[in-house]
Amino acid sequence: QVQLVESGGGLVQAGNSLRLSCAASGRTFTNYLMRWFRQAPGKEREFVAQITWGGGSTYYADSVKGRFTISIDNTKSAMYLQMNSLKPEDTAVYYCNARFILTLTDYWGQGTQVAVSS
């Protein structure tokens, strides 16, 4: 059973930084694509960033490119999202996602709230 647990959310002022963590367990994640999504109030869930479990390939939404950095620590089975230069529009619940690439099965964490004040 895949389990994903996010942590690290909070309330920060615009321009500051946060680091989100996603602890992954229950599988060997070699064939998984790891992603961050977010959902703001009244909006649909949107893609933020992705990384291969080996860490060799990353991709970002245009809205966060240059400000957010996704990373993997295989030894800890953890994924991170370093968020710098935060803006009020980054306010959302952030979700960790693991996609099994052979079947496109998605697993989700429970989410962590990020609030950015102006």
Radius of gyration: 13 Å
Point out poorly predicted stretches.
none
| Number of helices, counting only DSSP H or I runs of 4 residues or more | 0
> What class, by secondary structure content?
mainly beta
What share of residues are in beta strands?
Answer: over 45%
Number of DSSP E strands: 11
Q: Give the integer mean of the pLDDT values.
A: 96
**What summary fits the major beta sheet?**
7 strands, mixed
Backbone shape = globular
Please bin the fraction of helical residues: under 10%
Would you mind describing this structure in some detail?
The protein has no helices and 11 strands. It has strands at 3-7, 10-13, 18-25, 32-39, 46-52, 58-60, 68-73, 78-83, 92-100, 105-108, 112-117. Strands 2, 4, 5, 6, 9, 10 and 11 form a 7-stranded mixed β-sheet that branches. The radius of gyration is 13 Å and the shape is globular. The mean pLDDT is 96.
Task: Summarize this structure as a short list of keywords or feature phrases.
7-stranded mixed beta sheet, 0% helix, 118 residues, mainly beta, 4-stranded antiparallel beta sheet
Write the layout of secondary structure elements.
Elements: E1 3-7, E2 10-13, E3 18-25, E4 32-39, E5 46-52, E6 58-60, E7 68-73, E8 78-83, E9 92-100, E10 105-108, E11 112-117
Parallel strand pairs: 2-11
Antiparallel strand pairs: 1-3, 3-8, 4-5, 4-9, 5-6, 7-8, 9-10, 9-11
Concise description?
This protein is mostly beta strands and 118 residues long. The chain has strands at 3-7, 10-13, 18-25, 32-39, 46-52, 58-60, 68-73, 78-83, 92-100, 105-108, 112-117.
